[in-house]
Amino acid sequence: MATARELSPEQMAAYRAAAQRRDRAERRALAAREQRAWTLAHRVAMVLREQFNVGRVMVFGSLAHPGCFTA
């Protein structure tokens, strides 16, 4: 395997481009997972209100803080 010193500028550019694509894909996947988590949280809150007469439901953890959600 080549080290960073052995990579040509073209190889390094291709590596960076691939790394950026992976990063974007991971960010999109995490955003989709966060959206699914919110959807599920809303559904659960509705069930708790309707079936158990719960007056208030709170979200905590990384989902509760914008930009902090983790898988």
Write the layout of secondary structure elements.
Blueprint: H1 9-52
Q: What percentage of the residues does DSSP assign to strands (E)?
A: under 5%
Helix content: 55-70%
The number of helical runs is: 1
User: Runs with pLDDT <50, length 5+?
Assistant: none
Quaternary: single chain
Mean pLDDT: 92
Spell out the helices and strands N to C: H
User: What overall geometry do the principal axes of the alpha carbons give?
Assistant: rod-shaped
Cα distance spanning the termini:
32 Å
Q: What is the radius of gyration computed over CA atoms, rounded to a whole number of angstroms?
A: 21 Å
Largest sheet: none
| Global structural class | mainly alpha
Let me know the number of strands: 0
Tags for this model:
about 70 residues; mainly alpha; 1 helix
